[in-house]
Amino acid sequence: MKNLIFIVLLALTSALASCSHTEKKQSAPAEAVVVNKATASKDTLTVQGKWIIFFQPSQADYAEMQRNGVDSNFFTIASQFSTYRDTMVDSLKKTKWADMIQLNERRYLVIKLNNGKKVVFDRTKSNDMVGMILTDGKQSPDIESGVSNNRVWWAAINWFFGEK
User: Fold this and answer.
1) Which fold has domain 37-160?
2) Residue 2 pLDDT more than 80?
3) For the whole model, what pTM was predicted?
4) Where are the domains of the chain?
5) Angle between helices 72-92 and 59-67 (to 10 degrees)
6) Span 113-127, average pLDDT
7) The predicted structure's pLDDT at residue 135
8) SS3 call for 151
């Protein structure tokens, strides 16, 4: 009888020991998930994550340019940009990129990358006052300055975000 109790206790101890012992597996560190964030102040738009940003002068900028005698061709170009941009935004709103669209008239755009670096874009220092910026937080942003048509913008978006 003592042998039977000993065997039962040994079996129970062994069973309990195997239940309490869990093997920890090493897993690869997961890539941090960065939520799309955008905050705006009077002259700065700050973004983090994936964004498609269309930039152009503000109405106050246009008025100042007119007072300063900027070439009227610029206003024609800006009008063309607005038309193409509006068509592109309408198309984007029907896709997975619908929540990634920003229209920006602010002077500065601050792009926070996942590695902690910040890229600052000053719209007034660019060769072109209108265009599109693509960012995913991982790589340097792609700046598509000037007026383009939807086909060119779609190609840039698909290339930048790795869509084939």
Assistant:
1) Glutaredoxin (3.40.30)
2) no
3) 0.75
4) 37-160
5) 170
6) 89
7) 96
8) helix
Q: Identify the CA nearest to 144 among candidates 81, 71, 75.
A: 81
Kindly state the tokens that stand for 36: 């799309």
What stretches of the chain adopt beta strand conformation (E)? 37-40, 44-48, 51-55, 101-104, 108-112, 118-122, 131-135, 142-145
- Going by C-alpha positions, the residue among 65, 90, 93, 92 that lies closest to residue 78 is 65
* Backbone phi, psi, residue 134, to 5°: -115, 135
Distance CA 95, CA 157 (A): 12
Query: What digits encode the pLDDT tens for the residues 46-76?
Result: 999 999 999 998 888 888 888 888 777 888 8
* Percent of the chain residues past pLDDT 70, beyond the cut: 77
- Residue in 110, 107, 147 with CA at minimum distance from that of residue 131: 147
CA–CA distance, 164 with 162 (Å, rounded to integer): 6
